[in-house]
Design goal:
7-stranded mixed sheet; 6-stranded mixed sheet; 11 helices
Length: 327
């Protein structure tokens, strides 16, 4: 399901009673909801879960937890409490698999400085796991995906290509070292990136997940009523991603992203393989940060000092609002 399909579904949800304390709700396709408690504290709330994408149960728990926590970081928040969401075929799979998933998630939650307070499980035919996360943010420091300004530079904090790489894992096309690299990218928290941008005048932020780099960039462009230009050669991509894509190792979600984005993206001399990579459906990707040109290099340097592999990949323009150009 792409953003256009999701919008059609969400349109049928009843509108919430107007509340001035609801700072971020359903209207802007943002990463999490934000509700103001007082002049100093707002709640950030999110949840996410999915089926296993790697064979290692412990690492799956780590990745699922990092993915769920990321939405709070994308809003500029600090995770406080989490609750597990579990679907598991308890009568047909070894219970140790579930124990390892939970252990992986628990360790990642501790790394984030958050606390596990409970959860809910159901007996399901297929394993599913994720987290509901609650965090806090200062009401005046919320990093929504709607505030990008003309002239801003866009910074990405993790390489893309994860969807193609995980598809390759299923087809046994990656070495053990390549699998480890991909898993570590997904399991890495966006905590350091969020802490780094807290000291800068960040105008907008989102995390890159299932709708791909260009899908989440489009949401930022639309929400901010700006155009955005992405420079393909500046986008960090995991090793061998293009080679794998040329072999046809492309997830269905990536193809769907490419299809529904077609009318809103202008590809300037970019071949279809690179288009698909830029649309690749990501799990637990990096933050996409919109910051002024004057502060962009300094923020990238700060991110790198915190061992975040960040790069400037594009800019916000006043041309073609709500559209993206890739060069």
């Amino acid at each position: 399901m792409g953003p256009e399909d999701l919008t059609q579904v969400l349109r049928h949800l009843p509108r919430s009673v107007e509340d001035p304390n609801l700072l971020v709700g359903l209207d802007t396709s943002d990463d999490a909801g934000v509700y103001k408690l007082n002049d100093e504290v707002a709640l950030v709330q999110t949840l996410d879960y999915f089926t296993p994408i790697v064979d290692d149960p412990y690492m799956f728990g780590q990745i699922a937890a990092a993915n769920s926590l990321s939405d709070v970081y994308a809003m500029g928040g600090k995770p406080l409490t989490v609750m597990n969401i579990v679907g598991f075929p308890i009568s047909t799979l070894d219970k140790k698999i579930l124990a390892d998933i939970l252990a992986g998630a628990s360790d990642k939650v501790k790394e984030a400085g958050a606390v596990l307070v409970g959860g809910h499980s159901i007996d399901d035919q297929e394993p599913k796991f994720g987290l509901s996360v609650t965090g806090t943010v200062h009401p005046e420091r919320v990093r929504a995906n709607t505030g990008a300004k003309h002239g801003d530079r866009l910074i990405l904090t993790k390489p893309i290509g994860i969807g193609i790489q995980t598809q390759a894992i299923k087809k046994d096309l990656l070495s053990e070292n390549e699998i480890e690299v991909a898993m570590n990218v997904m399991a890495a928290l966006n905590k350091a990136a969020a802490e780094a941008m807290d000291n800068f005048d960040v105008h907008a932020c989102t995390d890159v997940t299932g709708f791909g780099l260009l899908g989440h960039t489009l949401e930022m462009a639309r929400g901010s009523n700006t155009g955005i230009t992405i420079y393909k050669d500046d986008v960090p991509v995991l090793s061998r991603t293009r080679e794998l894509a040329e072999q046809g190792v492309i997830p269905g979600g990536t193809k769907k992203n490419h299809q529904w984005l077609a009318d809103n993206i202008s590809y300037d001399g970019i071949d279809e393989i690179d288009q698909l990579i830029l649309c690749d459906a990501v799990t637990s990707g990096g933050l996409l940060i919109s910051v002024s040109e004057a502060e962009a290099d300094s923020l990238v340097n700060t991110l790198k000092e915190k061992s975040v592999d960040a790069a400037i990949i594009g800019e916000v323009t006043e041309h073609t609002p709500g559209k993206i150009t890739v060069r």
